[in-house]
Design goal:
alpha/beta, about 210 residues, 6-stranded parallel β-sheet, single chain
Length: about 210
């Protein structure tokens, strides 16, 4: 086991990022090898330095989710931790599916943050207890919805994509509206069409208008 883990912190809020970097360095457990403020920075850092772990802001320019989706494929050895002000939304499931190993709120204490990053660096997955409890509550609520309406199976992001589809927008237009890449929009389209058991965009749009609104 290394005496310290090499980590990178990517967040577009300089003051918050400085606080995280300070907390990591002062613990003596981590060597902060790079900082950045966007998804493109995250991808560049992974390519050039291949840190043991990378902390990603969910809502930074270029999208933390988008960065996670790309990094999980191009640099799977870099363990990812999402830090966000969001409590529970579709991003949790999306990030976990993308290979994110840790997910913490920005209100988390320094001690808790260190515990999460250390656990992730050691190969574990970690979600703070508060976040896990909220996630479990939401999952149970969705299970009840699924029995009556397949729309309930969609994540909030998939439903947002479907809403734009029902308005006749193309993947390119949807990507621009939701700050995603066209590739990511296609991924959501494939997933939501499978869940709704429809064969075309038109069927999906009609289903949404009939059941979702």
């Amino acid at each position: 086991m290394p005496s310290s883990y090499r980590v990178a912190v990517v967040d577009d809020h300089p003051l918050f990022r400085a606080g995280v970097v300070h907390t990591l360095k002062m613990s003596g457990q981590f060597d902060v090898v790079a900082e950045g403020g966007s998804a493109s920075d995250a991808i560049r850092i992974a390519r050039e330095l291949a840190p043991d772990a990378m902390l990603l802001d969910l809502n930074m320019p270029g999208s933390g989710v988008e960065a996670a989706l790309q990094l999980s494929k191009s640099h799977p050895s870099v363990r990812l931790v999402i830090i966000t002000v969001c409590e529970i939304d579709e991003s949790v499931s999306t990030c976990l599916e993308a290979g994110v190993r840790g997910y913490v709120l920005k209100g988390t204490s320094g001690e808790e943050l260190l515990r999460v990053v250390r656990s992730v660096c050691e190969g574990e997955a970690y979600i703070t207890p508060q976040l896990a409890a909220r996630l479990l509550t939401k999952m149970r609520s969705k299970q009840k919805e699924r029995a009556d309406n397949p729309i309930g199976e969609l994540t909030a992001r998939e439903e947002a994509v479907l809403t734009h589809v029902s308005r006749g927008q193309s993947n390119k237009e949807i990507a621009r509206s939701l700050s995603l890449s066209e590739k990511t929009v296609k991924h959501y389209m494939t997933s939501l069409m499978q869940k709704l058991q429809v064969r075309s965009r038109l069927e999906a749009a009609l289903f949404f208008r009939d059941k979702g609104e």
